[in-house]
Amino acid sequence: MSKIDFKKEYKDLYRPSAREVSVVVVPAMNFLMIDGVGDPGSSKEFEAAMEALYPMAYSLKFMSKLGPTAQDYVVPPLEGLWWADDMNAFAEGRRDEWKWTLMIMQPGFVSKAMYEEALVSVRKKKDPALLDRVRFEPYEEGESVQLLHIGPFEEEGPSVARLHDKIDELGKKRFHKHHEIYLSDPRRAAPEKLKTVLRQAMR
């Protein structure tokens, strides 16, 4: 049985250049999603959200591998949408005001029925506190700009500014929320080596 790695299947989406801002068209894809608010570095809600999201992602992976679809795949990386009621909260470091949606992309062969079945299974085995807040739904960005940021999350500012400058250069406006895809595990990689895809949809 071959194992699909979506980072390789969709290189243009998951492996952008760190030197040049690229323009991509992001199709609608299904995600496991969970919303929250607070500092990602210290928020118990942020930690609890991941404790609900990952068991669902792995349950669906094994259901796909062992079920009728008989398709194995590498669980895609964690992604995050970020915003605040007052966007100055980011520039001013008011991290308690940050709002986020954590999400993990799901292959097209993973169905809503499988998601419902996974909910029951995860509830029986682990029953994470925020399980009922995990949802399964599509998200579509369309035309977007993106860039690979290498380094600490706290130093993303200049990279984000490059995305915004590119959008202005193209005569377009920002659309949707700031999007990040975490290619590195911050628990294992040194901060200076963290790889994060930064993406911003535009219209």
Would you give an account of this structure?
The chain is an alpha+beta fold and 203 residues long. The protein is 31% helix and 31% strand. It has helices spanning 6-9, 11-14, 44-66, 88-91, 112-125, 157-169, and strands at 3-4, 22-26, 29-37, 72-73, 78-83, 99-106, 135-139, 142-150, 174-182, 195-202. α3 crosses α5 (112-125).
Number of helices: 6
Distance from N terminus to C terminus (CA atoms, Å) equals: 41 Å
Strand residues, percent? 25-35%
Count of extended strands: 10
The biggest sheet, with number of strands, parallel, antiparallel or mixed sense and barrel status, is:
8 strands, antiparallel
| Helix and strand element order | EHHEEHEEHEHEEHEE
- How are strands sequenced across the largest beta sheet? 2-8-10-9-5-6-3-7
Described by the principal axes of the CA atoms, the overall outline is: globular
Structural class: alpha+beta
Radius of gyration equals 17 Å
Low-confidence stretches: none
Instruction: Let me know the average pLDDT.
Output: 95
Which range best describes the helical content: under 10%, 10-25%, 25-40%, 40-55%, 55-70% or over 70%? Answer: 25-40%
Secondary-structure blueprint of this entry?
Blueprint: E1 3-4, H1 6-9, H2 11-14, E2 22-26, E3 29-37, H3 44-66, E4 72-73, E5 78-83, H4 88-91, E6 99-106, H5 112-125, E7 135-139, E8 142-150, H6 157-169, E9 174-182, E10 195-202
Parallel strand pairs: 1-4
Antiparallel strand pairs: 2-8, 3-6, 3-7, 5-6, 5-9, 8-10, 9-10
Helix pairs in contact: 3-5
